[in-house]
Amino acid sequence: xxxxxxxxxxxxxxxxxxxxxxxxxxxxxxxxxxxxxxxxxxxxxxxxxxxxxxxxxxxxxxxxxxxxxxxxxxxxxxxxxxxxxxxxxxxxxxxxxxxxxxxxxxxxxxxxxxxxxxxxxxxxxxxxxxxxxxxxxxxxxxxxxxxxxxxxxxxxxxxxxxxxxxxxxxxxxxxxxxxxxxxxxxxxxxxxxxxxxxxxxxxxxxxxxxxxxxxxxxxxxxxxxxxxxxxxxxxxxxxxxxxxxxxxxxxxxxxxxxxxxxxxxxxxxxxxxxxxxxxxxxxxxxxxxxxxxxxxxxxxxxxxxxxxxxxxxxxxxxxxxxxxxx
Length: 326
Fold this sequence. Notes:
Blueprint: E1 5-9, H1 14-26, E2 31-36, H2 44-54, E3 60-64, H3 70-77, E4 84-87, H4 96-99, H5 101-121, E5 126-132, H6 156-175, E6 178-184, E7 187-188, H7 197-206, E8 211-214, E9 220-221, E10 224-225, H8 226-238, E11 243-248, E12 254-255, H9 256-267, E13 273-276, H10 291-297, H11 305-318, H12 320-323
Parallel strand pairs: 1-2, 1-4, 2-3, 4-5, 5-6, 6-11, 7-10, 8-13
Antiparallel strand pairs: 9-12
């Protein structure tokens, strides 16, 4: 590993946790500084459990802070050795952005600006940052390619992620910082976010509660298992690009009803279904074109939706006593 001192934002989040754990287990000579504000967007018990696992590694140093506070960010990190930033921290969720847009401006716009400015002030060579498939909005061209126009986001969350990409280019152009953006496509798996559909479905099915199915089930998603995303991020760390954006998906859109059937099968329990119209900010289909990622990152997703959901459901059943409280 070229980089020895890595700052990971959102280290107690879903993707940040899995990436940190992977790096700590596979590279003995690295030091990770993880930062997270452990906020209550969803139950902090899950973030704390992830973080407690990471704290077992002696080369993991956690600092609780909000990176949207420039003063705290600089004071905590100005004397740290950092040669790579992996910026995964963000206010997540398309639907919540309709309720609390200010949280997205604070974390995703101001917070990301702070991270890029920190990279400039500390003379950090490279930043790998999280973007999202949501930037494609209601794109009619299938599959979604990095070359597609993404100027019409259909949610504020998507708009903030597009903004992150634009700011990244500016910091690359002005200051020469290498910037690699990764557009994640519906990442799922163990220790995932409880606000996401698969997690909510599992909780409600186990609890004998009805599940909400939007657009009457007529939707498709390019679900990407967490280990495949981690592989993609690891490749982006190793490879040097001046400024690039990559899709990290599975390139196999899954019909929502088949997705529900698999969860029912692996939980061995049928769901009571509440069919509803489409929600504001939602899209009918996501589908990643992986041509560029395969060529330049050697990215090749390996875990099928069937295998990935089976792993998640087995984990959920093993841990359901505390997961039902999240």
